[in-house]
Amino acid sequence: MSSHSNSKFSLPENIADTFGFLVLRVWLGLRAVLAGLEKYAGTAVTEEPLLDEFGDPDINGTMVEIKTKVYGLEHYHGLPPPLADKFAAEPLLPNWSLGVYDVILGPVLIALGVALLIGLAPRITLFLHGLLYCSLSVGLILLNESGGIAWLGIHIVLVVAALRLVKHDRFAVLPRW
Q: What is the pLDDT of residue 13?
């Protein structure tokens, strides 16, 4: 019998597993949400006067372009343009699948990330995360993008670790699923 068992405020026996799962759940959820939001990122260009060393506008009226990162529906791109062109040239990837991925990838990443963050059916959500990362790996394998393949492999290992620890989840909606 441990010395903590007599304490009025004893921690559950497997609190480290619970905390470990929560850390993985939060990391994977945030990673998916932010990756999905990045699909809506673009650049806005504005012109502003060139400032001199005193912070005053240049006397010649010189203007400079300022590029700023912005988010909006008009900037959406499920597949990054450089990769989309490479995928389109790959004979083992049907064109219809590229169109589907281009449309749904951002919203699916956001939806799965939010579901994981709130703990909605964590087993199913994690499984779907894993399937999504496997499907993304297929394209990168066909393009021989070793860095991206390894990066997605790490994500899959994290999903598997979370699936192994999900039984210790204490804060879930529909925890059995």
A: 73
